[in-house]
Amino acid sequence: MVTTGDNLVTEQETLNFDLSSYLKDKQQLVEAALDRSLPITRPEKIYQAMRYSLLAGGKRLRPILCLSACELAGGTSEMALPTACALEMIHTMSLIHDDLPAMDDDDYRRGKLTNHKVYGEDIAILAGDGLLSYAFEYAATHTRNVAPENLINVLARLGRTVGAAGLVGGQVLDLESEGQTDISVDTLKFIHTHKTGALLETSVVSGAILAGASDEDIQRLSQYAQNIGLAFQIVDDILDITATQEELGKTAGKDLRDQKVTYPRLWGIEESKKQAQNLVCGAIAQLTPYGAKADPLRAIANFIVTRKN
Ligand code: GRG
Question: Which domains does the chain have, with CATH numbers?
Fold first, then answer.
């Protein structure tokens, strides 16, 4: 996988880094914060539905990227934790809506029945809406020790990321493309940089902004995140073919069944793996100036291509 001198050095540094302990610690921090963030109150049903999906597990990749980028840029976990929770609330709401019959129509997510299967479509739509608006309220009211202009910048980026310029736009083009056989690599890239990549990029960049990072650092981290975002989606497409429902926690083989154009369909599995690995090498190259401080982000980039779910 490692092709350049630069990347060889970073790969060796990463070997000494214990990613699984790092992820476990950060996941615990995020799980506890998410649990505290959303107490059940009246009307109980909607809070239960929101908590059902928010606390259903998942890798917590977006909040961890936000915490890691904030620490890399000289900030603390505490500064980024409310935004990290907001990112997971937004991600979770996008999964709830994506699983609805009107969208991707799936019965399982994160190894459990999907939100609408448990609470009904009406409540699932509202649970998504509730999580989306609460994400902004929560980040705005719980963030401490961050310059107000940096917090406003992060909230504005979050808004752009979920809207038509981000997740919503990507999802619309994805729905329009279903069943079409002549989708170009360019269109596929547009879908995934918006539907999947935008939130991953905002996760990394938000952490850096909260810490007061320079424009140059934000630029580098943004490029790192764009690369891992696309690699993440390519791997997602591969796993849809190669992994089982138990491994994925959701229905496997769905892209083929829904006649979706995917990277493996355009390039084949081997070439898709190669492209994902090249993107990860490019991401890691952006981290060279930061030395060992960037080990978590380096290791996470490698994890993107080796993950099993
Ligand atoms: C955001 C207003 C608004 C509406 C949502 C439905 C929709 C519009 C967009 C779809 C976004 C979507 C579901 C993209 C797929 C992203 C993806 C690859 C999810 C899987 O992420 P993982 O593997 O999941 O990180 P876990 O469960 O580990 O968190």
Answer: 2-306 (1.10.600.10)
